[in-house]
């Protein structure tokens, strides 16, 4: 990579007023991953990172929330002709035979219009790539996206662009929330709680040995997004519940009691409930909320509205194989079900601390003394 090749971060809409904290989080994740960088600067709406290895640095930063897009780009002067010429040069190394390309420019140029830049760049690409039959596509149908970011003084022609996880900046709420992972749906709830800016403590509730192995594999997908080098995990072995709707509500009710107790012990202000009024009976959700409120803790429903973006994020963090189970759960009919929780339900608790690394699953299961 040349000296003028940088990692460029385009903050999400919800991070635009938290740029300072996003930069601090970028520095923190690079320190956790032990990746070297020379400097981090702002250029208008962009955050630019100069690093020895842009590929690894961009991969590490992609773990963070509050980012719309992350790119490896070449920095040049914000001059119309210079940008068009550079797009033509870079494209010759990126485009393959017969590919359809699409030029997308964003930013605040001085002295020219973004649309003119897109048209001129597209025209140049057509001329330069006639021999390989590369042709312009559309925004919805293309093989290669050629992204350009333009500020008042500089332009960034992207060599590689990846979608960010969106949401707001990690830990920007300055509040802690506790949430439970007991299945795929609750894991998405934890992910969404982090995405909404809460510092999150994880509690894992399981019924059998097979359950805990499965859940630890899911938790391993969440841990790198928590912006920590070491995490404390709280495990609870609970009694076995059936598959009926009533059993699911009873299990959730038990888990709520576990979260209340843990939140009190750790002095955590919020509890993130893995429920949604779109799936669960509203009276049931209200009952859980009132129970939490009565203890002086604030209930938070991260999944009050469920959309395709949540499923997209689940896939982005490597949970794509769990999506069919999540979608099946979303179709559950729980509206007429009632909870049947016994007051004397007991659990077996174990707390472990884990230094995050490449073998988190094995480390966690070994700490739990579970064969795997």
Automatic annotation (TrEMBL):
Organism, as annotated: uncultured marine thaumarchaeote KM3_82_B03
The organism's place on the tree of life at top rank: Archaea
Protein's UniProt name: Thiamine biosynthesis ATP pyrophosphatase-like protein (ThiI)
């Amino acid at each position: 990579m040349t000296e003028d090749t940088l990692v460029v971060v385009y903050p999400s809409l919800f991070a635009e007023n938290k740029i300072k904290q996003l930069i601090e989080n970028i520095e923190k994740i690079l320190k956790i991953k032990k990746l070297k960088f020379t400097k981090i600067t702002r250029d208008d709406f962009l955050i630019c990172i100069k690093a020895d290895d842009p590929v690894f640095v961009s991969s590490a930063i992609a773990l963070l929330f509050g980012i719309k897009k992350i790119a490896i780009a070449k920095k040049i002067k914000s001059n119309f002709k210079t940008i068009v010429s550079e797009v033509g040069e870079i494209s010759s190394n990126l485009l393959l035979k017969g590919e359809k390309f699409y030029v997308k420019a964003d930013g605040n140029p001085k002295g020219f219009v973004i649309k003119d830049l897109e048209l001129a760049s597209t025209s140049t690409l057509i001329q330069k790539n006639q021999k390989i039959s590369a042709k312009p596509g559309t925004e919805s149908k293309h093989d290669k996206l050629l992204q350009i970011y333009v500020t008042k003084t500089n332009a960034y022609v992207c060599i590689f662009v990846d979608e960010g996880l969106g949401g707001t900046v990690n830990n920007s709420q300055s509040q802690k929330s506790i949430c439970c992972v007991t299945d795929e749906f609750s894991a998405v709830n934890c992910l969404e709680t982090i995405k909404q800016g809460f510092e999150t403590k994880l509690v894992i509730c399981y019924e059998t040995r097979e359950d805990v192995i499965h859940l630890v594999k899911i938790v391993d997908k969440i841990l790198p997004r928590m912006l920590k080098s070491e995490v404390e995990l709280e495990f609870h072995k609970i009694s076995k519940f059936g598959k009926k709707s009533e059993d699911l509500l009873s299990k959730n009710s038990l888990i709520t009691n576990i979260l209340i107790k843990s939140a009190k012990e750790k002095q955590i202000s919020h509890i993130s409930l893995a429920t949604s009024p779109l799936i669960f009976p509203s009276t049931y959700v209200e009952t859980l909320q009132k129970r939490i409120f009565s203890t002086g803790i604030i209930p938070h429903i991260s999944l009050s509205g469920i959309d395709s973006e949540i499923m997209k994020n689940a896939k982005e963090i490597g949970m794509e194989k769990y999506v069919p189970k999540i979608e099946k759960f979303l179709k559950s009919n729980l509206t007429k079900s009632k909870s049947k929780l016994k007051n004397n339900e007991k659990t077996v608790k174990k707390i472990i601390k884990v230094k995050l690394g490449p073998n988190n699953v094995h480390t966690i299961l070994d700490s739990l003394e579970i064969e795997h």
